[in-house]
Amino acid sequence: MKYKDNWEETKRKFIGFWNQSNTGRPLMNVVARKPEIEHMAETPHPEGNYRDQICQGLHYGLPEELKWKSMEDKYQNPEKLVGRYRQFCETHLFLAEAFPNLNVDFGPGSLAAYLGADIGFGEDTVWFEPCFQDEDLLWEDDIPPLIFDPENKWFKKHLEVVKSAHALAGEDFYVDIPDLMENIDVLASLRDTSLLLMDLIGEDEEIERRVEQVTKAYYPAMQAMYDACKDPDGASAYTVFQIWGPGKCIKLQCDAGAMISPEMFRRFVLPSLKEQAGWGDQVIYHLDGPDNIRHLDAILECEGLNALQWTSGDAGPDGTLPDWDVIYDKAVAKGLSLWIKVYSGETVDDWIRNVDRVVQKYGSERTFFFFPEMSLAEAEKLISYAEENWSGIRGSYVEQLFGKA
Question: Which of 65, 112, 294, 401 is 20 to 30 Å from 362 by CA-CA measure?
Fold first, then answer.
């Protein structure tokens, strides 16, 4: 891999993470600016502070010919997508377990577009136009089955962009499996969310059937994307979370769970999650928002899960807050690893202090920490501290559960 020095070691650590047996310090995603662009870090970026869909980090000093001039340029032009990301790789360092990987999402939840929704592309967001919005429309009478069609215009376009980007990237960096999304989250994009919530009460059997249809559509679409993204050994990387693993490396979620009861979650969502968890080889669950915590016990019944990622919601505190231990305790007791985003605080010293608490409790064998982009000096300080203080830590809670190694 062109832009990654310790790739073989990184793969070994990822395999350890998925199996709760990592050695040395925890996994850490650390992307550092090269010193020659550090002066640009204080300059407001033309795209604002939004972490662009097309890569993790901002595009410092982007040449004019690579700048997007339209929404098609921004999301659907593989030459420019790869060119912009290659420029990012040339100006940054992928340290610890960070590795170069290009996000070619058409927005999170593009399975909805493959099933009939239209996509809206904006400068800082992507959305899906519901295609079943009539309040009086009855699912069973008026909407045909939700069946995956490989000739769907958005699927064909998306797959074409992914394949072209993969060819242009060569062996220099990964192209990620896109976030197609699952279950009721896809239905919420096909149907106005408020109408879908009413359907869950008045058309419950029909919604159950529609979720099954979404699940059946998921497999051929995801298989096609995996086949387009996998490396010669069959390993893959998954978008947004900066994760790699042997075989199919996937994410599961149900953000719409925040709006439904535990009983509804178990009926409408859990069966498909259990099935999909068994389909993936390395599977992370994305738990988003406080109102989804009530479904954690049900989620942990999915036997194929390897790791849990918790997000506290828009503008909420990061994953190191002690309040979230109630989530991590259950996940670790079930045998899962933890993916934890770190950003609360003003300096790298704050990040070190916050992470230190987590490592001392949950250890280094099963933890992954995702840090914000930083300067090379900050990165060297962080990694040096981790090597010296976080290596080979069993964790007090892990010892309490499973004993000493």
Answer: 294
